[in-house]
Amino acid sequence: MVPGNQTQFTEFILLGFSEKPEQQGLLFGLFLGMYLFTVVGNQLIMLAIGSDSHLHTPMYFFLSNLSFVDICVLSTTVPKMLVSILTQNKVVSYAACLAQMYFFIVFGGFDNFLLTTMAYDRFVAICHPPHYAAKMSPDVCSLLVLLSWIISLLDSLLQCVMVTQISLCTDHEIQHFFCDLAEVLKLSCSDTFTNYALIYFAADG
């Protein structure tokens, strides 16, 4: 592909973990088992929190959201990997790759913000117990979660828009099992300083 002309670039190849046929069955079973175990485990946590009124507290509210986003993160990457292992088709379209990248950044970013919010919740509970009920009211908790979603969505949108501006080389093999932002940037023929600066800024922020 000629740098600067992205219209001809329509797909990537996800190399995954192994190309050896004898290892595909083991990998499929291993990751399917871990995926189902994690999804079912997180769903049980959400169900337990939702059904028990004693657990309707800020800490468990955040934990329920954390369980939900953990399912979302896994569902963004693992099903596609399992299909690729099963069909031996590692090709993913440019649009699908961009979509996977977008949702992975959204859910990954929200996960980080949520963990920060949970740390703040424990800080208030331990250091300011008399003011805990006021500082961590249901409205405040909902607002913190909403702000985490908004920031994550905007950050992911900006990251993906920046990716669409780079020129990609003829090499379209991604050294990963999903469309990771850093791995896609490695395929660029153009200057990616701004992209990496944005990643570091988002990570340090």
Q: Numbering strands along the chain, what is their spatial order in the largest sheet?
A: 2-1-3
Number of helices in the DSSP assignment = 7
Helix-strand string: EHHEHHHEHH
Low-confidence stretches: 1-7
Tell me the count of domains. 1
User: What would the principal axes of the Cα set say about the shape?
Assistant: flat
Major β-sheet annotation: 3 strands, mixed
**Rg of Cα set:** 20 Å
CATH hierarchy class name: Mainly Alpha
N-to-C span = 35 Å
Give the total of beta strands. Answer: 3
Helicity range: 55-70%
User: What's the average pLDDT?
Assistant: 87
Based on the coordinates given, report the CATH architecture.
Up-down Bundle
Please, what is the CATH homologous superfamily?
Rhodopsin 7-helix transmembrane proteins
Structural class by SSE content: mainly alpha
* CATH fold type: Rhopdopsin 7-helix transmembrane proteins
- Portion in strands: under 5%
